[in-house]
Design brief:
This protein is mainly α. It is about 55% helix and about 10% strand.
Length: about 60
């Protein structure tokens, strides 16, 4: 998945936006990311992808 790919279709949030939010706010959970970006707050179908991004960035 590229940084400009949409992860959250409901809110049109890209992988790059999620990565930036994780790094800027030291975010560690889907809930943190939802609070900061609104990704994952509507239908939840992107939760697995968000978890993968968290693992990729935080490790």
């Amino acid at each position: 998945m590229e940084n400009d790919d949409i992860v959250c279709n409901c809110m049109q949030i890209t992988k790059g936006e999620i990565i930036e939010a994780i790094k800027a706010g030291n975010l560690k959970t889907i809930e943190d990311i939802g609070d900061e970006t609104e990704a994952g707050t509507v239908c939840g179908s992107c939760h697995d992808d968000i978890e993968d991004i968290i693992t990729e960035v935080v490790r």
